[in-house]
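Let us practice reading a record.
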Amino acid sequence: MTKKRILVADDEEDVKEIIARILETQGYAVVTAYDGLDAVEKIRSEKPDLVLLDIMMPVLDGYEVCKRIQQDEQTANIPVVFLSAAADQEAVTRGMNAGAKDYVVKPFEPKKLLEKVNKVIGPP
């Protein structure tokens, strides 16, 4: 059986590594991207089951990445969960309006992240 794949897009290497470790220990396959453009390219080529997307990234921000995913019929059905240090209601609302299925505020508890992932795509 093929593992569910999750793309983690975050410009902070340590955050990306922590998230990847959490997900991989649960049985998910993880692909990473450093910036928004890299994320868009990998989403198109890898077709992940879920995208965990930081908002503040170089080249393209998370909102623009989400918009591009939604506008491409090849990727429009891939769910997005934003991961961001922006905890204010305006940022959360903007993320949800951009098409995200959920929003996780950094720093986060690993258990909480896994609950959100499982809610959106189910267990590995």
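A brief commentary: The helical segments are 13-25, 36-46, 62-71, 89-97, 110-121.
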